[in-house]
Amino acid sequence: MCGIVGYIGPREACPILLKGLHRLEYRGYDSAGVALINNNGNLSVYKSKGKVADLENHINDKDISGTIGVAHTRWATHGEPNTTNAHPHYSQSGDLALIHNGIIENYKPLKQEMMNQGRTFQSETDTEVLIQFIEYIKEEQGCDLFTAVQLALKNVIGAYAIVVIDKSNPDRLIAARKGSPLVIGIGENEFYIGSDATPLIEYTNKVIYLGEEEIAMMTRKGDLQVVNLENVAQTPLVKTLEMNLSDIEKGGFPHYMLKEIFEQPDALLNSMKGRLNTEEKDVLLSAIINHRDRIMKAERVIICACGTSWHAGLIGKYIIEELTRIPVEVEYSSEFRYRNPVITDKDLVIAISQSGETADTLAAIQLAKDKGAFLYGICNVVGSSIPRATDTGSYLHIGPEIGVASTKAFTAQVTTLMLIAMAIAKEKQTISKEYFHQLVDELQSIPEKIRRILELNDKVAKYSKIFTYARNFIYLGRGYNYPIALEGALKLKEISYIHAEGYPSAEMKHGPIALIDEEMPVVVIAPAHSKYEKILSNVQEIKARKGKIISIITEGDTAIKELSDIYFEIPSTIDCFTPLLTIVPLQLISYYIAIAKGRDVDQPRNLAKSVTVE
Ligand code: F6R
User: Fold this and answer.
1) 296 membership: H or E segment, kind and range
2) What residue owns the CA closest to ligand 1's atom 9?
3) Does 582 sit in the ligand 1 pocket, CB within 6 Å?
4) Ligand 1 centroid – CA 613 distance (Å)
5) Whose CB has fewer CB within 10 Å in the chain, the N or C terminal residue?
6) Would you say residue 156 lies in a domain?
7) Which has the minimum average pLDDT: 235-244, 386-395, 437-446, 557-566?
8) Residue 563 burial by CB count (10 A; 0-12/13-18/19+): exposed, middle or buried?
């Protein structure tokens, strides 16, 4: 969702800010803006609807001088996406400018109060209310900006990551956060700010993740002061970023999504590194080793997640139940948080989130924490809110995922859930030693098998073009591949805008079969496993109604292959690991259909990479 960049130091700020905005484009946005304190002392705010490139065109002939500034990409929440509602927002006097991620929930009464004080508003945003309120406090109390920000934030309900600049003090940048992440990069007498680390990475690897309800003041001399809302000094922890610039560039691929699909073999190896030990035939997860008693005592697992991460959770349910016999429930975080669920201190709640910032998942785990459950996070973004809010967890270690449609994070989430299931099963001895060893060996071979599937790339590209005519798709899968049917359908919807639905194969005859005619593409996920014969019958039912069959089958299959219009073969594996293979051709199918339809695959319309609002 919205993106934040800030800079103070000896260099020209504008090129740094604009480059930072480009780095944040993957998060999804509809307008962009920049504020600079120019060399002549003016505070200039430039904004434009659309892409960062539109903003660049807009400021072509403007004064963009200055060594302090803030910039923002906005994903509309309060007020339509237009130039007026774009950030930064000025205060009434024009002396202050603010950028903001998050939502100020009590903005309406605050706005009324400010209007009663004679303040006027240009935009419909909650953000403009906040900067007016900060300025009001500053003037009323005669205090400095740092104090005014603290006092204002004490009266704010909601979530925020903000950065403020003040024309009358061009040597100081102020930032604060609650609920929305903010990263401060430390250079030589200079500071960079980002809503995540991607805008900072090419300048510094020394970062501070600002804590909840902390306010930071950075000066041109290189001083950094961090306090909480009660004005108590905080000691910020300086961390070293593990990302490289190559992690956030396309590396020769036309899109991040394709790059990330191709990164999966290495990504999964990284996720398994140090955790899957094929020599000793063991699975070692530090989270489980460090909290062994608490995790082994769990009488139930509840998985909370959204979207693709929820699909990973569903596969997690199948494998955890199969291997450990612990009952597992998989919840949409947004439903769980509001439906007064039964949670006890015997529950292990696993929160899955690529970004680690999804507002609904954060709220769900907060609820579970209040009821005494033990919280385990599976996240990708290091230092994000969910890992900090959980008792323990496992990072995916796959580098940044920039394409909005999640690909490598999904397979890494599934892999991590498999490792968790295997580690618990071993400890509880719910599976035989022989089967455990077989699982270890087979999991190790999955990255290489994915590499082989990626060789299908050209075939997928060629055949996907045929389906640009389709207005609907059906995806069918059974058992471990039912969640893959859901995920395959979601991938197609997100980036091609073709309507698609996933079903458990046997459900087809309870309704969806009515949709099948000669125009309907039906993707059948049918790797060889115990229920193969049942899927074969489903395929025959589709064929009898002239549906177009696209199948994902195991090498050596003949029966479904013969019935298919197009088939993609994958190497064989143990049933529970098939989702890690079957999803790969589906990711490629979505990608190539979207490309053939001319879609913006990395930034599909209306979507955001990090859903920080509910
Ligand atoms: C789909 C997709 C979304 C996310 C969902 C949860 O490709 O990316 O459905 O999976 O918004 O996001 P995280 O995993 O960051 O909590």
Assistant:
1) helix 292-296
2) 307
3) no
4) 13
5) C
6) yes
7) 235-244
8) middle
Q: Which atom of ligand 1 is nearest to the CA of 406?
A: 7
Say yes or no: 407 and 495 in one domain: no
Amino acid 168: pLDDT:
95
3-class DSSP assignment, residue 530: coil
Pair 124, 135 in one domain: yes
Helix/strand/coil (H, E, C) string of 91-120?
CCCCCEEEEEEEEECCHHHHHHHHHHCCCC
Would 607 be classed as within a structural domain?
Answer: no
Angle at 585 between CA 584 and CA 591, to 5 degrees: 95
Query: Does the pLDDT value for residue 1 go beyond 80?
Result: no
Return the number of other C-beta atoms located less than 10 Å from residue 243's C-beta.
17
The verdict on the CB of residue 384 being under 6 Å from ligand 1 is: no
Judged against a pLDDT cut of 80, whether residue 614 lies above it is answered with: no
Q: For residue 435, give every residue at least 6 positions away whose Cβ sits within 8 Å of its Cβ, in sequence order, or none.
A: none
Q: What is the 310 CA–ligand 1 centroid distance (Å)?
A: 8
Q: What are 150's two structure tokens?
A: 């603290």
Contact 555, 569 (CB under 8 A): yes
Task: For residues 446 and 506, state if they share a domain.
Answer: no
Average pLDDT over residues 477-487: 97
Tell me whether strands 172-178 and 158-166 are parallel, antiparallel or unpaired: antiparallel
Note the pLDDT of residue 309.
98
Give the chain's domain count.
3
Question: Of the candidates 427, 452, 477, which is a domain's last residue?
Answer: 452
- Considering the domain architecture, whether residues 273 and 408 belong to the same structural domain is answered as yes
List the domain range (segments joined by +) for residue 442. Answer: 258-452
- Classify residue 604: in a domain, yes or no: no
Which residue owns the Cα nearest ligand 1 atom 11?
307
- 2 is known as an active-site residue: yes
Identify the active-site residue in 2, 14, 379, 576: 2
Nearest-atom index, ligand 1, CA of 409:
14
Same-domain status, 119 and 130 = yes
Q: What's the confidence (pLDDT) of residue 183?
A: 95
- The pLDDT mean for the chain works out to 94
Q: Tell me which of 426, 452, 478 is where a domain ends.
A: 452
576 tagged catalytic: no
> Which domain CATH number covers 552?
3.40.50.10490
**613 lies in a domain?**
no
265 lines ligand 1 (CB under 6 A): no
Residues 21 and 82 in one domain: yes
| 353 and 239 in a common domain | no
Residue 215 burial (CB count, 10 A) = 24
Question: Quick one: pLDDT at residue 494?
Answer: 96
For the segment 386-410, what is each residue's pLDDT rounded down to a tens digit? 999 999 999 999 999 999 999 999 9
Q: Under DSSP, is residue 164 helix (H, G, I), strand (E, B) or coil?
A: strand
437, 310: one domain:
yes
Closest ligand 1 atom to 358 CA: 16
Average the pLDDT over 58-85 and give the result: 93
The yes-or-no verdict on residue 612 having pLDDT over 80 is no
